[in-house]
Fold each of these.
Amino acid sequence: MFKFLTTKPLWVNIVAGIVLLLLLLLLFLGSLSLLTQHGKTLKIPTVTGMSYGDAKKTLESQGFDVQIQDSSVYYDTMPPLRVVKQFPEADNLVKVNRTVYLTINRAQAPFIQMPNLVSMSFRNADLILKQYGLRLEDTVFKPDFAKNSVLDQIYKGETIKPGTQILQGSSITLVLGSGIGGIGYIVPDLFGLTYQQARSRLDSMSLTIGSVAKDNDVRDTTEGFIYKQTPVQFGEDGRPNRIHPGQYIDIWIGAQKPERRPDSTSTTPGGGN
């Protein structure tokens, strides 16, 4: 061949070289198209909501590569290790061998710190619960001046303090103020009762113990007796004082059980220090 080229005129050799280069170029482009499967596209299937294993199997069987993009998210409405999100999204047309990135719901709920909802309005408390990934289990109303304000936060039947570690997705019950009702009671007489006895009586009337003052010889409120309260049961004119659900009664506790003076018409006869 080379002998043939050398015996021909120069322009013939040039033309033959150009033709040879074009043939090699066409051969290269054809093989490149076969290798890359140029122009061939596939529709990405929907794998959101599937388990990771099923999603991986589905994608790989259709010629896609699979990679986990994020596995730190948690949704309590979805089972563990399910596909939360995929990229590219379903029904997009992409080239074969394209990598599909998956976001996986973590296997276990993370721990978070319980927020402080006390004194918030119900609406704000509900928003905070959602921001922290907590559920509102129930609302309980209690007579109090602060209507629809959070008085307590309950988890599994007990008050949960702010900052306590709790699993995301846990359910919280909120105790809300219902406002002061129109029904009033005569102020109950707590004279001579223990703290627990007084608390039981007030709870039955939707009343609350306010401040507690202990005498020096009283180590614990459960060991003493009430000898003074405010408001008292009767006024100076002998007429009964009234109190509404949700209001407070302050008490004073002494070590010895007091004795009521025969001439006393109030619940504060000074039986103590």
Note: The radius of gyration is 40 Å.
Amino acid sequence: MRVAGICNTDVEILRGYHQFRGVPGHEFVGEVVEVAGVSAAARKKWLGKRVAGEINVSCSAYGHKPVCDFCRRGLKTHCARRTVLGIVVHDGAFAEYLSLPLENLHQVPANVSDEKAVFIEPLAAACEILDQIPIHKFPEAAVLGDGKLALLIAFVLQARGSRVTLYGKYEDKMKLARSAGIRTKKVRGHANDLKTVRENFRLVVEATGSPTGLALAQQMTEPRGTLILKSTFHGAAPVETWPIVVKEITVVGSRCGPFAKAIALLRLGKVDPTPLISKRFALSEAAEAIQFAQKRGVVKVLLKNGK
């Protein structure tokens, strides 16, 4: 591991999400130092390469036969027997070394720095929206939330031509969006927003990481509009379903995404995530870094391995 990023999911895992026990961390850029079970040519191809890694390890990647139905259908991120790096039965990236199958790895282009490459996994999650909906049909979009993922989603949608309005609570975070040319509006992040927010959009992305964000997202979605759900958190979200039925809203759950699209955005300079970095810590300071990452106003915290 060269650089790892601390994600809200890592914090939720420490609170009990997925009942994970082991080494957390799933956002990383690393250097391949050993390859097992391959030809000499394949080993030579990968040794020394900088890589980012897809976090879902499918049964086909493990070499299981027969593979599950989801893998046969090409839905490896939903593999019935998958492990998930730093989340489900697979030690993660907050360590000096980690392991992943070769089919999970993507080489990092030379013109993409480590501090940009560490964003590939969450940026890919933002790019998943592009594979789920015809984005050209949504010239305007609202993103609810001002955290790391919400900001990356806003950057991606803007890069693909949508006029984005980001709704957030924290001025310092919204300033990052405005510096990228994204319009922002302040909300309080509680039930009173349902009374004060009156805008509607055909496309709304809920990425608040909060149970209260879902109700507002439903209210803001136009009839026959599309609501993308990106939040994951430990606990229940009280919600009424009648707006979905009455307004005939299309609700789309959205999780991991295409690394190739994320890498292309970075390689071409379409998205620069480095302004989101709040602080860097040494790997040996991981406990302190995780505490810092939970402070108000903090966006992305990085762990660096070695000098």
Note: The chain has a mean pLDDT of 94.
Amino acid sequence: MTRAGLIERLADRQPGRRGFGGTADPLEAAAFRLVLRGDHDLNPGMTPPSTALRPAAVLVPLIDRPGGMTVLLTQRTAHLSAHAGQISCPGGRIEEDDPDAIAAALRETEEEIGLPRERVSIVGRLDNYVTGTGFEITPIVGIVEPGFELVIDPFEVAEAFEVPLAFVLERRNHQRIERESAGRARSFFVLPFEDRNIWGATAGILVNLAEVLAD
């Protein structure tokens, strides 16, 4: 996947609307369900959260390496109260003073790993992802030129690492597994990379990226 090809695929994207759960119109709510991605994609009996969702935004940073693009991911520290130790895209909640999801994703990325926002060229966004914990995540895709130096916040991030984009695009790496949670079986994607397992919302977002770039 070349830089030009990636930008072309994302340029005309019309991702899902943000805000499922905030409407009293059943037809509109049903439409939101269809266009929003989430944990319920692989679990037909699972209903997306019906309460007001908490907005969040993440950056999907694509590093334009000479040998091929990579995706920059983080591993959260083990002591955090939410999603401890999980592999994530840098990002977090959209705060009231954030102008939009892009600003929130860039701010959170700079706070977590020290990647300056001026190093990121925003090229598009993916489908919103609704989690079972009540977050609606807006994934923002940006291309980053090599030559940056990360400054990791040790409270939130244990480490940052890169995964080849070619690995993410390979459908054979999108493993679907089942696990029991809260007394019922749940299915979700896992992308096993080296000694790590990328799963949950991050895996769902990366699978969506692969779908978009494969169209």
Note: Confidence is low (pLDDT under 50) at residues 17-25.
Amino acid sequence: MTPQLIATATLGIDTSGPGFFDFTRDAARFLTEAGAGEGALFAYLRHTSASLVIQENADPDVQTDLVTALDRLAPADAGWVHDTEGPDDMPAHVKAMLTGVSLQLPVVGGVPALGTWQGIYLIEHRIRPHQREVMLQFAGCRAD
């Protein structure tokens, strides 16, 4: 089936250092403004030292523990060769590789079909604040 609607936007997300940045509402607003009905939402992060995930949105301790787990998997003091942009850069690239820079979500009735406790997050892996760009694209039917 050929989509009736393809809509694209770029979302800017300001980060304040390592951690999770929820953009679920921004994604839902994009779908509403696009007139989305049934289809798919694609999110793509245009960076290599941050990542995108769908994760629990109820208990912030989950996010704290996930940041700790990623730090254990890719510690800053692991003796990385690439350190041109600082000691946190190479670990950030590893964390982004592990978690990914793109997502796809079903859209039902014009909203992301997330579970009760799920949210859409950008994870910042660098120490200093950044301006990150997430490309959002919807492909599907128009809302009735």
Note: The CA atoms of residues 13 and 132 lie 5 Å apart.
